[in-house]
Amino acid sequence: MKLYEQLADEIEAAVRRGVFTAGERIASVRQASQQHGVSIKTVLHAYALLESRGILETRPQSGYFVRAKPRSGEARGERGGVAGAMAVASEVDVSRLVLSTLRSIRAHGAVPFGSPYPDTEPFPWRRINQYANAIARRHASWNLIDDLPPGNPELIRQIARRYAENGVPVDPGEIVITVGATEAINLSLQAVAKPGDTVAVESPTFYAMLHAIERLGMRAIEVPTHPADGIDIDALAQIIGEGKIAACMVMPNFQNPLGFQMPDERKRRLVDLLSMHDIPVIENDVYHELHFGDARPSTLKNFDTKGLVLHCASFSKSLTASYRIGWAMPGRYRAQVEKLKFLNTLTTPSVPQVAVADYLRQDGYDRHLRRVRKLYKQQSRIMMAMVERFFPAGTRTSAPQGGYVLWVELPERVDSMLLYRAALAEGITVGPGYMFSTRNAFSHFIRLNYSYPWTPQSEAALQRLGQLVGELDARARET
């Protein structure tokens, strides 16, 4: 390899690693010559090669700049999308898939239909930041002992008060503050099961729950789940009768991705069944505040008489995503969860806890929630109508009762990973159904996020998404 080719490869690698970003000016020819100890002629050859590769561009009287990354297919003059997306690996790495989607949204401004997170613009993050800044000024330093589990007493009191106001009797002494709901779920799972144990989950289920089971060396058994009524209790009873189930993990309220609210009588039946066999159930209730109805839904905790419900929630989906404040109410496993919290992460930072507690005590959380619920309900109806309008015949959607995600069943021949690749090539993200099962059971499903503002851009993106589905369906018919 010639010297200028080596230099070109070195600079291109730096660009791909993000050392130099799109639109950024790089070193002049003379500066690069000095930095790399090569001749000016070598640098000129290297820069010319990088221009031919589409990595750099020259601007008269200004120098060399990193070129904006073309969308897939653009550099070859293709339309992108379906034709270039057919070669997809049979194995799907869910963690990498989620991370890739989030990076695409952040780095390239892709339409965030595939995001697992809500749009934070309606959240009162500026107000909460003001509280945090004021707290930091009042306390130049914190005693680590003040941060120890179970967490800030005032925040715990405010959380217990909200449950009490909504008909859920909670002992503040049961609450353990965590770093988001993810930690609460992981700690709860560690408290009730050990490596090699089997945990029953809904199907489809939120992929973070599958991640937790896999990470702890456990096995998941998927239970059929109705899009309106929730987990099939009869099927779960049969599974319990056939073998040892260490625990169950469910999302009874506004389940991700189906969006249902499990009826109260079925919540009671589920708790009664598990109580009969002394099996703990981890309840992921992160969307509990985002209901579309007039009243906040009940939880499994409402029907728990034996302390077998480990209830997990957070403020990340309804108030502030950046502070990562969650909690667990682990019932009879409370002492074990607190110990695991101390062993795993020691503490949850104090300033975010106190800032959220101050906001809950002094500001209009309920007023904020009413606005967000109304917004999400309107946008869910818009997205459902647009999918019905733009997607081909054979497409069906869920009917969310809360939360911010829509589950879409595509024509059976459409592979959601092919759609994911094709859409991403055109600056649109989706959540392919592969992420919500360990059995590839939902290969022709996608999850869409409707929390972001409905704009001409998002409408055009959804229309294009429908066209891509039609193209993939037609292509599959021909093969």
Automatic annotation (TrEMBL):
PROSITE patterns per UniProt: HTH_GNTR (PS50949)
A single Gene Ontology MF term assigned here is:
DNA-binding transcription factor activity
Which superkingdom is the protein from? Bacteria
Q: Record's InterPro entries?
A: Aminotransferase_I/II_large (IPR004839), HTH_trans_reg/aminotransferase (IPR051446), PyrdxlP-dep_Trfase (IPR015424), PyrdxlP-dep_Trfase_major (IPR015421), PyrdxlP-dep_Trfase_small (IPR015422), Tscrpt_reg_HTH_GntR (IPR000524), WH-like_DNA-bd_sf (IPR036388), WH_DNA-bd_sf (IPR036390)
The protein's matches in SMART domains, at most eight in alphabetical order, are given as: HTH_GNTR
**Keywords annotated in UniProt:** Aminotransferase, DNA-binding, Pyridoxal phosphate, Transcription, Transcription regulation, Transferase
HTH gntR-type domain residues: 1-69
State the family it belongs to: In the C-terminal section; belongs to the class-I pyridoxal-phosphate-dependent aminotransferase family.
PANTHER family in alphabetical order: HTH-TYPE TRANSCRIPTIONAL REGULATORY PROTEIN GABR, TRANSCRIPTIONAL REGULATORY PROTEIN
- Name this polypeptide is given: GntR family transcriptional regulator
| Annotated source species | Caballeronia concitans
Its organism's taxonomic lineage begins at: Bacteria, Pseudomonadati, Pseudomonadota, Betaproteobacteria, Burkholderiales
